Amino acid sequence: MEKHIVKADGNGAIDVNGQVSPVTYTVSLKQGKGHSYEVDIRLMAPRDWLLQRGFERDAVLVSQSGARIPVYHDDGSHHDDGRLDPADTISIELAARDDSCTSEVDLMRKYPEFDG
Questions:
Q1: Closest CA to 10 of 115, 116, 113
Q2: What is the per-residue DSSP string for 59-81?
Q3: How many angstroms separate the CA atoms of 6 and 52, rounded?
Q4: What is the pLDDT of residues 3-48, one digit of tens each?
Q5: Where are the beta strands (DSSP E) in 18-66?
Q6: How far is it, in rounded angstroms, from Cα 50 to Cα 27?
Q7: Mind listing the pLDDT tens digit for each residue in 50-106?
Q8: Cα 56 to chain centroid, rounded
Q9: Residue of 51, 56, 87, 99 with fewest CB within 10 Å of its CB?
C-alpha cells in the first residue's frame, strides 16, 4: 500500500518543441518500495498553445530545480493517433511519475518544492 506523504506546488516552464512558457505544477510525494520515493507531477497547459507549437503527446517540464522532466498527455480517450484535437478540453493535463529518487537528499535536490 502506498503512503501519501506530501503535496507541493512549483513554478517552472513548459518546453514544447523548443518553445518555452512559464507554468505552475503540482508534485505529490509517496513512499515507494524500500527506501525509494515516488513523485507524481501534474500540470495544466492551454490546449491552443500546445497545438500552435506542434504538441503531439509529450513535452518537457523544466522544474524549479532546473531538472528537465518529460510530461505526457493521456486522458484515456485518445483519438485515432493519440494526438490533441481542437475539440479536446481547453486545458490539457500533462503528467509524469518519477521514482528515481532513492534518498531524501536526492529528493530535495531534484524537488526543492517539498522543502517548505
A1: 113
A2: EEEE-TT--EEEEE---S---TT
A3: 35
A4: 667 899 999 999 999 999 999 999 999 887 777 899 999 999 999 9
A5: 19-31, 37-46, 58-62
A6: 21
A7: 999 999 889 999 999 999 999 998 765 555 555 677 777 789 999 999 988 988 899
A8: 15
A9: 87
Grid look-up 515507494 returns: 32
- Please give the grid coordinates belonging to residue 17: 518543441
Cβ atoms of 89 and 115 within 8 Å: the answer is no
C-alpha cell at 18: 523548443
In the three-class reduction of DSSP (H, G, I as helix; E, B as strand; rest coil), residue 13 is classed as strand
Asked if 63 and 42 count as a contact pair (C-beta separation under 8 A), the reply is: no
Asked if 61 and 41 touch (Cβ cutoff 8 Å), the reply is yes
Amino acid at 84: L
pTM for this prediction: 0.84
Nearest-angstrom CA–CA distance, 4 and 7: 9
